[in-house]
UniProtKB/TrEMBL annotation:
GO terms for molecular function: oxidoreductase activity; zinc ion binding. CDD domains: FDH_like_1 (cd08283). Gene3D superfamilies: Medium-chain alcohol dehydrogenases, catalytic domain, NAD(P)-binding Rossmann-like Domain. Residues 229-296 form the Alcohol dehydrogenase-like C-terminal domain. It comes from Selaginella moellendorffii. Residues 57-189 form the Alcohol dehydrogenase-like N-terminal domain. This is Enoyl reductase (ER) domain-containing protein. InterPro entries: ADH-like_C (IPR013149), ADH-like_N (IPR013154), ADH_Zn_CS (IPR002328), GroES-like_sf (IPR011032), NAD(P)-bd_dom_sf (IPR036291). PROSITE patterns: ADH_ZINC. Keywords: Metal-binding, Oxidoreductase, Zinc. The keyword Oxidoreductase applies. Transmembrane segments: none annotated.
């Protein structure tokens, strides 16, 4: 769906009531800050924009000390693939920093606290939040378009367009965090930004990916499609949980090298292996116990899906999904953690049913996993620095977006120091 069409539909279907102050906050009339903004398809810029202000008693303002670019979700926004993204949208959903201002109803944090911010925005009070289903929060996304397209609204997400609430992101010097007691997590003094930052998304999301696959039991085999940060970290979680064999699939040389040399997993290079399921059956006779899709909707393999996406007959491709279904053993588990936003053709529903596969998917409720993931980081069991390839400043972010999208110069994960 094109952005203009999505915006027209959004205006037609209108907005829905949400928790007070949860989206589109007011900004200062006098104070400005630097921020990375979306200016159109594949156009990102560093701009001076108004600084956010507290608009609700449960808000905090965080002075961002570090942030990063999501090679998956941010790349989709960058490419103009996310419906209803406004020009000037502040990008980013992965950030950490120091609390600078505190709303009067905030109880867990004070000015000066170091915090990491969940990418998903939850109120903590609706039925979904009470069940720990934070990405299903009913009150933080005012887009009726989301409800129209999916039947229900997803929670708000920082920096991800109006479809997900229009909330300004964290690739900025300051960010307003709604419902801070729910969406911020205090960083222990001994954990540096270089490690804490990634709890905002990638470490929790990769853990969620493995949980969607039913968890990994000792001795089981797992295949992971896509060796970006989420796929690489999912592989590491599988190792920690005792997987006997982890197979990673990608076509980017640098990603394959990190997976093979730093993690020691078996890799399949799509440049030289045309039939990935066949190769997996050679490595794991009968198929893997669990498969994780960490690549995403915009990677068609077959000519058919390349044509259909080009002419607009589908938004998302089923090629990789069908490879997962083929390569997973009967009664196995399939996890879809990569972004899928619309519709795909030729999805192998028959394989799903006839092989008795369990398929689970969905964005990560980060708040559910903060304690577990931080325990692993603090103890040294999980050191996320293995995936970081570049350290940059905020002004370097527009170039980094291009490098990440085009998979150039070995970019996998960046650390943006403010």
């Amino acid at each position: 769906m094109m952005n203009a069409a999505a915006q027209a539909l959004d205006e037609k279907v209108g907005k829905v009531p949400v928790a007070q102050g949860s989206t589109r906050p007011a900004t200062s009339e006098t104070e400005v800050m630097r921020a990375i903004t979306w200016q159109g398809k594949k156009t990102i810029s560093l701009d001076k924009v108004p600084k956010p202000v507290i608009t609700h008693p449960k808000d905090v303002i965080v002075k961002v000390t570090a942030c990063t670019i999501c090679s998956g979700s941010d790349s989709h926004v960058y490419a103009g693939e996310v419906p209803d993204t406004s020009k000037g949208q502040i990008m980013g959903h992965e950030g950490c920093g120091v609390v600078s201002e505190v709303g009067e109803a905030v109880t867990k944090f004070k000015a000066g606290d170091r915090v990491v911010i969940a990418f998903d925005i939850a109120c903590g009070e609706c039925d979904y939040c009470k069940r720990g289903e934070f990405t299903g929060c009913d009150t933080t996304n005012d887009s009726k378009l989301s409800e129209f397209v999916y039947g229900h609204r997803h929670s708000g997400i920082f920096g991800y367009g109006n479809l997900l609430g229009g909330v300004p992101g964290s690739q900025a010097e300051f960010v307003r965090v709604p419902f801070a007691d729910v969406n911020c997590y205090k960083i222990p003094d001994e954990v540096p930004d270089e490690k804490a930052l990634y709890l905002s998304d990638v470490l929790c999301t990769s853990y969620h990916a493995v949980m969607l696959a039913g968890g990994v039991k000792a001795g089981e085999s797992v295949a992971i499609w896509g060796l970006g940060p989420i796929g690489l970290c999912a592989a590491r979680w599988c190792q920690i949980m005792g997987a006997s064999k982890v197979v990673g699939i990608d076509f980017v040389k640098e990603r394959l090298e990190v997976a093979e040399k730093k993690l020691g997993i078996t890799v399949i290079d799509r440049n030289s292996v045309k039939d990935v399921p066949k190769r997996i059956f050679e490595l794991v006779p009968g198929g893997v116990d669990a498969s994780i899709e960490a690549a995403g909707f915009r990677f068609p393999v077959s000519i058919l899906h390349k044509v259909e996406r080009t002419v607009g007959l589908e938004t998302d491709t089923a090629d990789i999904l069908n490879e997962l279904l083929l390569a997973t053993r009967k009664w196995g588990r399939v996890s879809v953690i990569a972004d899928y936003l619309g519709y795909c053709n030729h999805f192998g529903i028959g394989m799903l049913m006839m092989k008795h596969l369990t398929l689970r998917s969905g964005q990560c409720p980060c708040q559910r996993y903060f304690d577990t993931v931080m325990d692993h980081v603090k103890s040294g069991k999980f050191d996320p620095s293995f995936m970081v390839t570049h350290r940059i400043k905020l002004e370097d972010a527009p170039e980094a977006y291009s490098k990440l999208f085009n998979k150039e110069d070995g970019y996998i994960k960046v650390f943006i120091e403010m």
